[in-house]
Fold DUF5694 domain-containing protein.
Amino acid sequence: MTLKEIYIVGTPHIRLDQGSDTFKESYEKYIEESSIIIQKIAHYSPDLITIEWDMRESLRLKKEFKQIINQQLPHLLNEHHFIAMPLAHRLGLSEVLPIDFNQMQTRKIRASFADEYLENADEKLYQYMNNAKNEHQLSKNQPTTLYEKLTEHKEGPIPLEQVFAIRSLADSPGIAFALEWSERNHIMATNIIKAALNHERTIVFTGMSHVRFLEFIIESTGLFKVIPSQDILK
């Protein structure tokens, strides 16, 4: 049986507000950098594009996808306005599929409880977690291009994965956090799998901390060939 292909691309988060003083400069920079990525991915002719976007906001996604097609800009822009939506338009796809169910407030509360628990119960683990948090912030502030961030190869976990994994060790509060994080990834993986079964080649754009989790779940079904983004972007 020929396996269907899924490419999971871990993208850095972008947040741009048209009201910002630096909007024009940042917008032009991201447009230039994303054009290289779009060109390389378009070469593989994916017939489905899925993104880390809350399914409850699907109407907003459709509206903003139309705006991008018509060369209009939403007031607030994220990474999907620069890569996934223009790519879908270039390929002649009629939609970009949202796959996320993001319970951010619940996760923040559980993270806070777990962090407080570690601070009081295990000073060493708490310090390890804070070191990983600092590394995560430093990596976000590195002056690298979008293309460099998407193609850099890193053995082992990224700092944000370390934060989540160490936080999950905080006994009951940690398990509560881990269950929410795991559920979110499983929901995304399920949505990807069900949609991708009807397509030959699927692209997934998601935050970098989800990539290895999604790869494992999707590959474990034995239904897909999961291809690292580095292989299609190099």
In short: The chain has a mean pLDDT of 94. Residues 4-102+201-233 form one domain. The first strand starts at residue 4 and ends at 11.
